[in-house]
Amino acid sequence: MQMTVDSLESGGPYRRVEESSSGITIEVPVPLSLSEWHDQWISPLRDLMIFANRERSVVEGISGSPDIADPFASVRIFERNETTIGPRSHYSFYQRDLLPAGIIDTAKLVQAWFKLHRSLGSSSAFFFGTLNSPAITIENEFLNLMAFAEAYHRTLHDEKPLSDVDHEAYCKTMLKSLSGEDASVRGLYARDLRYSNRQSQRERLTWVVRRAALETWTDSFVEELVSTGSDTRNWLTHWGDKGDRVAEGADLAHFNRRLLFVIESNMLDDLGLSQEDADTCLRHGYVWDFPFSEP
């Protein structure tokens, strides 16, 4: 894979605008189907643009050549874009890049990105699909981000409470005590015990929040964030008793920005950035809309 970058400067005496465009040439050892191109190359690179620039990204066109010896033998593939790009305004020129030039080693980043993207698999659609959506309700945005945060931890940092051997032994012991009961009763408990050896959503959320914690965050502030996420998710999913920390309206929109910060912080760590570089990237990306005041 070879990447080239061209830059363009424009503006006047009071504002300078720098725009960059890049081209990528990819050679693969064996032919790939269109779906394989999407999964292995197009989607990961598009998602990298979404993550790095904190802007929506559109694949404008896909074309191919079935016969490289014939320069006129080309195939154009038409697909429906899942998002749209709005017209530029003066806000478009505010730098909000999460991966600004000069901070990262591009070659190492791209390698780490493809590895991370492959590890996340289909769960990445919760995150990048949400960020790339031109219009989504704050409730759907919240549920998607929460689902991704849980899947992210489960995929990369899962820690089962018990070993599989111990869990199986305990389950057999507990189910054996129900040997005299009806089969439906044993099936009821067998169903729940099968999935009991796992961390709860609250535990997973606590882990990712603590990992992203800033120096100014106290334990009570971390607990507030976790409780808000957990109570709001339970409320929107089950519509049962409303917890004390349920966020709605403007408060939910604000929490979504905070949860996004937490997720991005974790991803920067897993991309191999040092703590200093990750902090620099977050400050740069949130220079206009930092979601935390002093707790």
Report what the structure shows.
- With 295 residues, the chain is mainly α.
- Helices cover 52% and strands 9% of the residues.
- The chain contains 10 helices and 4 strands.
- The strands form 2 sheets. It has a two-stranded antiparallel sheet with strand order 1-2.
- Helix 3 runs antiparallel to helix 4 (138-156) and helix 9 runs antiparallel to helix 10 (275-285).
- It is globular.
- The mean pLDDT is 86.
Any idea what the radius of gyration is? 23 Å
**Silhouette:** globular
State the major sheet.
2 strands, antiparallel
**What percent of the residues sit in helical stretches (DSSP H or I)?**
40-55%
**Overall pLDDT confidence:** 86
Major sheet: arrangement of strands: 1-2
In oligomeric terms, what are we looking at?
single chain
Q: SSE string, helix = H, strand = E?
A: EEHEEHHHHHHHHH
Number of strands: 4
Q: Spans of 5+ residues with little confidence (pLDDT < 50)? A: none
Cα separation of the termini:
45 Å
Task: Tell me the β content.
Answer: 5-15%
Task: For this entry, give a set of tags.
single chain, 295 residues, mainly alpha, two-stranded antiparallel ribbon, globular
Give a nutshell description of this structure.
The chain has helices at residues 34-53, 106-120, 124-131, 138-156, 164-176, 183-194, 201-212, 219-238, 249-270, 275-285, and strands spanning 2-11, 16-25, 62-64, 75-77.
List the helices and strands and how they pair.
Elements: E1 2-11, E2 16-25, H1 34-53, E3 62-64, E4 75-77, H2 106-120, H3 124-131, H4 138-156, H5 164-176, H6 183-194, H7 201-212, H8 219-238, H9 249-270, H10 275-285
Antiparallel strand pairs: 1-2, 3-4
Helix pairs in contact: 1-2, 3-4, 4-7, 4-9, 7-8, 7-9, 9-10
